[in-house]
Amino acid sequence: MRRNVAIVVCLAALSGVADAFWRLPCRGRSGVARMDPLMASGKPSDHVHAVHGSGGFTMSSTEATLKKGNCTSCAVTQDKSAYWAPALYFMHENGDTELVNEVGGMLAYYFLNGENITAFPENFRMIAGDSFMRHFPWPIPDPPKSEWSGDDISQPALRQKALGFNCLNYNLDPEPSLGRHFMPNKTFMDEHCTDGIRFELMFPSCWNGKDADSNDHRSHIAYPSLVMDGECPEGFDTRLVSLFFETIWDTYAFKDKQGDFVLANGDPTGYGYHGDFIYGWENGYLQRAVDQCTDLSGRVEDCPVFDLQSEYDQGQCTFPVPEELKDEDVYLHKGGLPNNIAIEYGPAYASPVKYTTPGHAAPTPTATQPASKPGFSLGSSLDLASSSISSMLKLAPTPTTSLIQDVITEEIVYVDQEILLYMDTKGVPLETESGSQTTMSTATSTLTRVASAVVTTPTNPPMKRDRHSHIHGHRRHRFGHTH
Ligand SMILES: *[C@@H]1O[C@H](CO)[C@@H](O)[C@H](O)[C@H]1NC(C)=O
Ligand SMILES: *[C@@H]1O[C@H](CO)[C@@H](O)[C@H](O)[C@H]1NC(C)=O
Ligand SMILES: *[C@@H]1O[C@H](CO)[C@@H](O)[C@H](O)[C@H]1NC(C)=O
């Protein structure tokens, strides 16, 4: 029996070694701007991204326009893809934010994990991570992968486990990749991360085999059961080359300064880190690389199909910043993050985007967006300092959009539901439990004119009811729910 076990372990180790990959250096940064052709096509995006890849990057890039770019900030000249992720800021004590220095550009890893790997199809685009996440309701740290099952391998869990924040100290043994799924606090970074922090992001590599993109830019793809490896879920049987972003931020430069790190999307936790990709390899090249770049060294120099350019040339490639964003200082911003994105600590889901300036209008959903499900959103941030505080949170229903063809009557139902949030002694959320719903009030409105689109924003929360607001060991949340 014992010997069988040993053989299994040995085979597993061998097959792990056999996975080839290459590490594509993008030593240049093609730009830092509020641009995101996937989530905000044709207009400025909510938050600032650090962008690598094609010099043809614009607010409305497609594969075709990226390929027309005359340069790339990455090493392989046949690759005009675009790679982008939120930038990291340091918020000083006075509220001003300063862009943290990105060290050495980006490394875009292409892993050849799994069998029968295919290159990305034409016009392929995808997102990894979720900008609005502010908590991690699964065990911390990860249990050993061999023990993952059930909820551990759900797509939402795998998506959050695909984020890594690696504390760098080159004098010590390196931390494992994807070992920590949140940003360490500044005290910890000041003490331990003398070479900065490395953001890591694994993209899904299981594909439905037909859609190059989807409305949310993620439903056409899924994670394999072990994030980077393992089984693809049913319906996502095509194994793509696995894309992984790495960027290093010089957080240690702020060692003796008062303040805190925050991602450009208003996320100080790291749980809302995410990244975007638009495929832009010259026709057929990526598949050739997948088939031929099987050297285990990971060096692009060891693959004969790549044409390489110097680090200097990578550094020369930048995209033009659009006129409307030219005056925005993304390096130093007074009184908050660029675009005054509010900082949300969670653990509640941070959608929709909030701003620190009261007069700043939230973007209005448009008729072209698919009708979204009524969502929950909590009006104020929680502080995670203690597990014995309970607080009542303000109700802020999410606007919902629907396409209307004719006169309609709609009913808005406010319900009250108790959500128990269990936390460990450090205030880290472990799980939630929801109680029954009580209807608190209803309102109806009839539209008498024909409209093409209606944006519903329930404005008056129901009457406040007195509640016990101190419950030891858990918090009570109140949610608005619109029908
Ligand atoms: C690319 O084009 C821009 C103008 O569109 C130009 O400023 C830049 O020098 C060009 N870069 C290269 C590497 O040719
Ligand atoms: C890979 O392709 C071969 C040949 O088509 C097939 O026999 C094998 O089952 C495939 N493997 C997977 C994991 O799909
Ligand atoms: C910072 O993080 C460390 C490690 O997780 C923790 O021990 C410490 O209490 C935290 N400090 C603050 C001020 O939150």
From TrEMBL:
Residues spanning the signal sequence: 1-20
Keyword Transmembrane helix applies: no
Basic residues composition-biased segments: 465-483
Sequence ranges assigned to domain DUF1996 in this UniProt record: 36-281
InterPro entries recorded: DUF1996
Keyword flag DNA-binding: no
Domain of life: Eukaryota
Region (Disordered): 356-375, 457-483
Keywords of this entry: Signal
Family matches, as PANTHER family: DUF1996 DOMAIN-CONTAINING PROTEIN, PTHR43662
The protein's name in its UniProt record: DUF1996 domain-containing protein
Lineage: Eukaryota, Fungi, Dikarya, Ascomycota, Pezizomycotina
